[in-house]
Specification:
By secondary structure, this protein is an alpha/beta fold. It has 17 helices and twelve strands. The strands form two sheets. It has a seven-stranded mixed β-sheet, sandwiched between helices. The protein has a five-stranded mixed β-sheet with strand order 1-2-4-3-5. The structure holds NADPH dihydro-nicotinamide-adenine-dinucleotide phosphate.
Length: about 450
Amino acid sequence: MLKYVREVMDMVREMNPGEPEFHQAVKEVLDSIEPVVRKHEKEYRANRVLERLVEPERSISFRVPWADDHGRLHVNRGFRVQFNSALGPYKGGLRFHPSVCRGSMQFLAFEQTFKNALTGQPIGGGKGGSNFNPKGKSDREVMAFCQSFMTELHKYIGPNEDVPAGDIGVGGREIGYLYGQYKRLTNQYEGVLTGKGLDWGGSLVRTEATGYGVCYIAEEMLNAHGKTLNGAVVAVSGSGNVATYAVQKAQQMGAKVVTVSDSNGYIYDPDGIKVDIVKEIKEVRRARISEYVKMVPTATYRDGKKAWEVKCDVALPCAIQNELNLDDAMDLVANGCYAVVEGANMPTTREATDYFQKKKVLFMPGKASNAGGVAVSALEMAQNSMRTRRSFEDVDADLQNIMKGIWQQVSSAAEDYDMAGNYVAGANIAGFRKVVKAMRDQGWV
Ligand code: NDP
């Protein structure tokens, strides 16, 4: 490892103790960009480029008090990490999940910076959220929490400053409550959040964008290797926003999707997952995915197990970070899986990624493959600024072009550095080059 890269990695560990996911994300990027750093080492060292890149521009942590339906008071912790604004206002989702902490926010905001660069849209990188657990809470409790969260967050965001969106635990309902409170506090009806309702500033295709984008880029990668989603057997994890629309689009493209899951277990439906039933369970009833077998008796539910034990051609991990480890990767490869396209952020552990690459499994990292969501968020911001509204077909066509553009950047960046087929390196190098160029142009601020 290059001495400069090693020094920066050591510094990251020292300055951010107890944040293994952040260390993991930084290490993956630094390992990948080493050939670029080697070429420009003098300039990067002189301007402390890597040191700047691994330190957020601003990191906010705040108290979120709220009352439950019985009048009991709770205090959660809120975060917003504004990592890098070289390419535009900070942009990235809000996550409500018990695992949220400073380290997970830093890792997600860091990744978001490069992902947003790949979209070609004018957006910087940020991420936020809270350790609040929306599971089992009433609508009123979720509303109370969102209002309290926004009461603090609104001081730090704005349509030209920082534009959050949804992520795990934050969907249309939560964005609505957050937006209403922002409006009440600021008196401004403006594009400060994306993923809004279609009647009040939201963009068509935003709900579907991440899952659809995963399938669009999967098809580009498969085609380049003489394969296609059409006729492929696909395993998907998760049953939230990304998973649901990845299942839907993969099926529209002719694939047979045989699994979905949640944190309790997974469903295997040999006849193909019924996406309407998943939506009914998850979006309407907010229930567990195990309910699926009551409605589709030919399907099976495996409690406490992961979808990666089934036989499939293509795997789409769409749930959460580090959900696919080395054992899972070995199972997938042994069962004939030849492509993995990440829908979630960093769902594959480093060991599993290395194994896939060693076994020549086509592997597309999340920062490239799940960028469709944030890309359509940027299109939503543009529509809000222009006070206009575009059709589903128009936005979907843009999304397809953006995903094609990401594929081209990622594959050619890998080739530029003699690593053809290594799309992890390609994505990191292509994103890094854009961010660093903008930072240089702006005087290394
Ligand atoms: P949702 O909250 O809609 O869904 C998350 C899903 O993952 C749920 O089904 C959840 O099940 C499941 N899950 C959570 N933890 C685990 C676990 N340990 N094992 C298996 N399943 C689990 O979130 P999204 O679909 O929005 O996000 C999913 C991933 O995609 C995240 O990594 C997110 O950062 C990433 N992403 C999302 C984008 C978006 O536009 N929404 C954009 C880009 C990336 P349960 O109900 O049991 O918790």
